[in-house]
Amino acid sequence: MEVKKTLDVGDEVPNFCLKGIDPEGKEGEFCFDLFRDRKVILYFYPKDNTPGCTTEACDFRDNLNVLKSLGITVIGISPDSVESHKRFRQKHNLNFYLLSDPHKEVAQIFGAYGEKKSYGKTTKGIIRSTFYIERGKIVKAWRNVRAKGHVERVLKELGLK
User: Which residues form the Thioredoxin domain (predicted)?
Assistant: First the structure.
């Protein structure tokens, strides 16, 4: 899975495989090729059960019927373990894929890991980012987003609300 640059709009998403849970909570390894022919919202978030990440995940959960009716699959990715994802899913009734990227390799490919500023400090970590993908190509990218209201903005920009 060698990628020389950060993926951006118009780029083909390379196949990658991560462990995680499906919308029913079943554990497994999921490869992007499984979703290649679908419309996908792939979003990266820093940590399960934190305020911003919970807000964003619950917004995706609450809008999932609209997205599914348009054939869109939602996939959330964070460095958290599969066990953490299971607890997160159960606590908040999440109904979409949650994948574990513990070494942040997939996040790096998408440019969703790196330096970020928080409260005036520069740190390295997951940069909250969302990608809309059709037929394996990135159609739209939102980088360094704010969790609150983000899903609403995504739906509006995609012409879905």
Answer: 7-160
- CATH code that applies to domain 34-157: 3.40.30.10
Alpha carbon distance 35, 18 (integer Å): 13
**What is the Cα–Cα distance from 64 to 72, expressed in whole angstroms?**
9
CB 111 within 8 A of CB 126: no
CA distance 17 to 29: 6
Residues with catalytic roles: 53
Q: Which residues, in sequence order, are bridge partners of residue 75?
A: 42, 97
How far from 129 is each of 27, 106, 112, 154, CA to CA, in Å? 24, 12, 6, 11
Q: Encode pLDDT of 67-119 as tens digits.
A: 999 999 999 999 999 999 999 999 999 999 999 999 999 999 999 998 877 77
Residue extents of the structural domains in the chain? 34-157
Whether this model's pTM surpasses 0.90:
yes
Q: Which residues, 6+ apart, have CB-to-CB distance to 79 below 8 Å?
A: 46, 47, 100, 101, 102, 103, 104, 107, 126
Q: Are 83 and 77 in contact (CB under 8 A)?
A: no
